[in-house]
Amino acid sequence: MPALRSRVAAIPLAAALMAATCGNALAQKSYDTGASDTAIRIGNIMPYSGPASAYGIAGIIEAAYFRMINDRGGINGRKVNFISYDDAYSPAKAVEQARRLVESDEVLAVFGPLGTPSNAAIQKYLNLQKVPQLFVAAGATRFGDHREYPWTMAFQPPYQSEGRIYAKYLLAEKPDARIAVLYQNDDLGKEVLKGLREGLGAKASMIVATESYEVTEPTIDSHVINLKASGADTFLSVTTPKSAVQSIRKVAELGWKPLYIQGYASASVGSVMEPAGLENAQGIVSAYYAKDGSDPQWKNDEGMKRFYAFLAEYAPTARASDISVVYGYGAAQTMMQVLTQAGDNLTRANVMKQAASLRDFVPDTVVPGVRLNTSATDFYPIEQLQMMRFAGKAWEMFGPVIDGHLGE
Fold first, then answer.
1. Which CATH number goes with the domain that contains 116?
2. What whole-number distance in Å separates Cα of residue 169 and Cα of residue 327?
3. CA 276 → CA 100, 178, 368, 377, distances in Å?
4. How many whole angstroms separate alpha carbon 224 and alpha carbon 403?
5. What is the spatial distance between Cα 213 and Cα 151, in angstroms, rounded to a whole number?
6. Is 317 helix (H, G, I), strand (E, B) or coil?
7. Is the domain of 165 the same as that of 277?
8. Would you write out the chain's pLDDT as a tens digit for each of its 408 residues?
């Protein structure tokens, strides 16, 4: 849809003055494809099937969140038409779905597409089309590269920062650690490993073994066996949910007792810890920026009260213990904030401008001390994590919130 233009017929002067007043108000409205006086079309791509299907619940929660917003009158009076497609965690399928959203559905923006491989595959296309690729559900640094990709913005903390934070933790708590790393062979795994090495600096030799795996591998058991054989006493698992579950189970089966660090991409209680066996998950360490929805410490937290009320009404079968449920809510709330800030100027350029203008925004689901900030030269909204340890049936946060700032 082209930008709105006023068409004024010849009218008497007295009426013209009144029309001018109304015309100024109308002129303030500006729309690109995907927006109008009554609606905003937002696209989304999720792995509802395939090897990363455990993450698909995030898209279901985002759809439910926008239903809630629509029931409350929408955003600045406009209803959100949230269009979400399955890519089965396949880059080729992601490209197909991105083209469908842009060229057929004519969305204003693509919000929250999930997965490093999928987002990498669609990034150039969306930037060439000048369609916002907003709040990418992946932590590779390329998704915050504002110079190379000015139409792409990250959401979660960069994986590189995560690796640095684990390094800081180990240097302080276990400076003589012998570290083995299992990592997914893509930007997810490579960047956490890179950050770990950077963070260890002169002590990078603490890493005694690494094993990469392909997301299509049916099992990662042989990799875990090899890493145990290295003599490592510390194990970092940078994995997606299916492989994370296998990893936790195999470590327990082997009787290996390392300090176990699980990358935050698979720190979900509902989709990883419970399927792996709670008894096998005790003592695992990770880092995250959001509250554990199953932790009773948040029952009187005002933000989480809103989250629980939302689940009760709009997603009653979703598990609060699933980190992807918490994620979907927080990401959708952030997207709503951007669209609210955009007001009646719903052009793609202004949507990106508003996304790059977040100032101490605090979604209901982030831990105290975490605030979302962006600028024209900082496309990483969340750059803070807090260490946590799994005990009983929930994560227990410990230590201070740690900033891993990568923006300029």
1. 3.40.50.2300
2. 24
3. 37, 24, 29, 41
4. 31
5. 31
6. coil
7. yes
8. 433 333 333 334 444 444 444 444 445 899 999 999 999 999 999 999 999 999 999 999 999 999 999 999 999 999 999 999 999 999 999 999 999 999 999 999 999 999 999 999 999 999 999 999 999 999 899 999 999 999 999 998 899 999 999 999 999 999 999 999 999 999 899 999 999 999 999 999 999 999 999 989 999 999 999 999 999 999 999 999 999 999 999 999 999 999 999 999 899 898 999 999 999 999 999 999 999 898 888 999 999 999 999 999 999 999 998 999 999 999 999 999 999 999 999 999 999 999 999 999 999 999 999 999 999 999 999 988 999 999 999 899 999 888 766 544
Residues 171, 143, single domain; the answer is no
Give yes or no: residues 114 and 167 share one domain. no
Closest by alpha carbon to 39, among 63, 64, 68, 73?
73
Burial 48-64 (b: 16+ CB within 10 A, else e): bebbbbbbbbbbbbbbb
Domain membership of residue 192 (yes or no) is yes
In a domain, 1, yes or no: no
Bridge pairing between strands 345-346 and 259-262: unpaired
Q: Do residues 372 and 361 make contact, with C-beta atoms less than 8 angstroms apart?
A: yes
Closest alpha carbon to 190 in 158, 230, 231: 158
Q: Are residues 283 and 341 in the same domain?
A: no
Contact 140, 157 (CB under 8 A): no
Does a structural domain hold residue 302? no
Boundaries of domain holding 351:
39-157+321-381
- Per the CB < 8 A criterion, the answer to whether 361 and 139 are in contact is no
| Structure-block tokens of residue 294 | 């199953």
- For 391, the token pair is 């005990």
- β-bridge partners, 44: 84
Backbone angles phi, psi at 26, to 5 degrees: -65, -35
Q: Tokens 């913005």 map to which residue? A: 153
- Count of C-beta atoms within a 10 Å radius of residue 329: 31
Residue showing tokens 């449920």: 325
Rounded CA separation 53/333 (Å): 22
Integer Cα distance of 4 and 88 in angstroms: 38
